[in-house]
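If your schedule permits, I should be very grateful for your opinion on a structural question. The matter concerns a single protein, recorded as an amino acid sequence and a row of backbone structure tokens. Could you please explain, in whatever detail you think fit, how the structure tokens follow from the sequence? I set the record out below, with my sincere thanks for your time.

——
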Amino acid sequence: MWYKQNIKSISSSLENSDTAFFWAMVVITLYAFTLRILGVTDGLPYLYWRHWDEPQIASAALRILKTGDLNPHFFNYPSFMIYACLLVDVLHYYFLMGKEGIDGLYIGLRSIDEILINIDTGWNWTISHPSFYLWNRALTVLMGTISVPVVGLIALKAYGKWVAILASLILSGLAFHIYHSIRITTDLPFSFFVLLVVLFSLRFHYTQELKYLILALVCVGLATATKYNAVISIIVPTLAFIINVRKISFSRLLGMLSLFLVPPMVFLCINPYAVLDLRAFLLQSGYEVRHYMVAGHGANTVEPGMNHFMLPMNRIASQIDSFHYYCFVGILVAIWRNGYSAIIILLFPVVYLTFISQSRVGFHRNFLVIYPFCAIFAAVGIHFVLLLFRKLVFYLKIKKRLVRNLIYSLPIIMLAGYFGFLWYSRLCDALYSGRPFDNRTLAVEYINKKTKNWSGKRIGIAAELMIHQIDLSKLKVPYEIFNHKDIQQALDRFDFVLVGEYADSHKGLPDAPNKTEEANLLNAMTPKEPSDKVISGNQASLTCCPIDSPKIIVIKGRRK
């Protein structure tokens, strides 16, 4: 076929150069790492509702660090990320024990008991030492970064070096993938291990070596130990085994036993308390099954079936820009060019989409695992379109060599320009996301500027704002924390008062007390006269962290 015949002539400079390919992948990987690592400070030292899952994992790891009890006592998610964060936390604990005072996001430790978490304060979003979160996020960044060359390796064997580079390029700059690469959640690690399952399954398909089958099955266990529904990934090495069962040199019985035994053994090694604390495991993991399949989740509840299937498809299409058009082309071309390899790569996303679309919870982060596969097939599609264009130009039989080469190069130039613009814009976004932008931080900076040359000034801060000690340490004037209900007395005692605008618990927060009346009462107590400064933002919930940076109202006090 002309498509196969022209690959070498069109792409020979790269396809025949391992060195060029290696350095291209190094540059792309370094770029992917830069985009992700720049965002790890996002929001810190504060957490937001959009980071809901972070304290579920990070606080569980810190609780083990504080108590020495290895039972996570949390089984809504499997324990891989909790124990992975624990290993990082142990290293970071020793690091902080060697520091004194406050240095940026780092707060020195004198004792392990100085670490405060939700069990110490009753506030789920307690983050006394935010650098623990910083290092935990860096762990996820590494997985997100390594996912980029892994996608390239998956594409390499089946579709060549150009497709591998294009796939890695696309994934490196996908905003949704970048966003979840800097969160302490299960979604990115789940995606990472599933990619390894597919990679090793492909290796087994091409070599029929037992070690690759075992590695794929180990990664199935790791993926399932990260997120329960990753158990579906077992279908990938199973299919690869079935396809190659007549070609293998090892015992078929050994292969089948491996399929049945390796993943659960790996899962139980990482989640031993699924057996040792069986009741808690069944209660909490069972809750998640009911949550997804029956109960739904407030505003994020969707009807199962085609409606749920199309919802993530539309979101994915919008997130990957125009690449989704090439993705559909790429799937057809991939099956045409290399059917078995394409099916091995395509099997998981198809089955997973079908399975999740039967649930009632519409969190789009559940579909993060689909994005790397979209990158692979979009790369196949783009490569095919480029080759098709050059084939059409060849049929035109343009005699002038300069004109012919210019037309040949036009789509490459356009593609390079597009990726250049994408890389630049993503880099700008990453540089911005790493800046401290929380309104509580901005309010402290404003007060310091306002009172720079004023001696003897005193500041009152509403306790409901939950301003972190890192920001409080930056204040250059004396301050005092007060309850918002005492605002009138505070106005008499202080030169400036910092308060917020409050709301009831965020919709969807389970079992949260109804504090609408209290929130309305506190808001009514805030003076209506013109404020000294208003930093616009979200309402601060009385039972939860804010959705994003909260609104801060700076009021001039009546202190004489």
Q: What stands out?
A: The chain has two domains: 2-39+138-432, 439-556. Residues 1-10 have pLDDT under 50 and may be disordered. Residues 58 and 526 are 35 Å apart (CA to CA). The first helix runs from residue 2 to 15.
